[in-house]
Amino acid sequence: MNRDVRDDFQGDRLFLKKMNELGLEVIDFGFFRENVIWIKTKQGKFVLKGFSRSETCNKQLKLSKLYHGQKQRIMGTYTSYPNQKKTVQFGKYIWAIMPFYKGEGLHFGNKDDVKAGVEAISRFHSFSKNIPLPLYEQLSSYSLFKKWSDRLDAFKFHARSANWNHQMRPLISEIIMWGEWSLNHFDHEAVEKLENKAYKKKEITHGDVAPHNFVKYKEKDTYLIDFDLFAAVPQAFDWLQYANRILPFWHWSYETMEEVGNEDFLKWFTKRWFVISLVFPTDLYREWNRALKTGDKEMIDAVTRFTLRDFSHRKKFIEKIMKRMS
């Protein structure tokens, strides 16, 4: 891991000294991100996560405690330093520690991996209803309609000044039209009912069911990691995001969803609001907003390939929905 990615880190010597004070003899370390470090020690391998606010750190530790010790792992959880402290202040962050979980992320082009992800989300949702009310009330919530409206507005803003290549230029108006159609047909009443029901049942979402936030160890259980985007919103929003992430790998085929899904997942495809929401190209907006904001050529090329790869299949899928719902 390239140590040069760190920003304002206080040097190897001070870091190693601090780890030693905590009872960890570090052999090697590196950075995933500025505030996420892996360390190899004589006691084993760990991941340190840095928080700029103690409130955020404490909330994540409380959430972690809820999932700790489950016989069938549901979430990767934090642990203590050898001196039994949960956190340590170093540099500009408060650092919590978790084991380095063995395993791989999921590959959404593999049906077994997609099924494993479905089961992991179901287990997470089922257990998460046990969250104590005081902790549940600390979680943030959001309006899906507003979140998506903001994302579409950001894409329109970036798209105006973007230097589109000859392949992308003809597609932009259609990509924008899909988002506008989905928001214009958004079933506010159904989603509001869903949100009220979810609050009464204390439903929470993981919020980022991307392939790298799953851990699959050999052929054993698959579980989720990362507490960053937990929210007090309907669990259906996790399923909507999961569908949006896996459909591009399977030519936008509902038949494939039937093969890989369970009842928790597939029941949402019968709901009008959910099907209309599948038209909204949130993945394209998310990736393009990030790429166009940075102006990074490699990132722009990668998102271009991602967009073009399944565009015709996505278009057929969307047109079918539009025809059915209009």
Model description:
This protein has a five-stranded antiparallel sheet with strand order 1-2-3-5-4. Strands 6-7 form a two-stranded antiparallel ribbon. The termini are far apart. By secondary structure, it is an alpha+beta fold. Residues 1-9 have low confidence and may be disordered. The protein has two domains: 3-99, Phosphorylase Kinase, domain 1, CATH 3.30.200.20; 111-325, Aminoglycoside 3'-phosphotransferase, Chain: A, domain 2 (Alpha-Beta Complex). The protein has helices spanning 12-21, 54-67, 111-128, 133-136, 144-161, 172-184, 188-200, 236-246, 254-260, 263-266, 272-277, 282-294, 297-309, 311-325; strands at residues 26-33, 36-41, 44-51, 87-90, 93-99, 214-216, 222-224.
Q: What is the chains' assembly state?
A: single chain
Beta-strand content estimate: 5-15%
Mean pLDDT: 94
**CATH superfamily grouping of the largest domain:** Aminoglycoside phosphotransferase (APH), C-terminal lobe
What descriptive keywords fit this protein?
326 residues, alpha+beta, Phosphorylase Kinase, domain 1, Aminoglycoside 3'-phosphotransferase, Chain: A, domain 2, 2 domains, 5-stranded antiparallel β-sheet, two-stranded antiparallel ribbon, 7 strands, globular, disordered N terminus
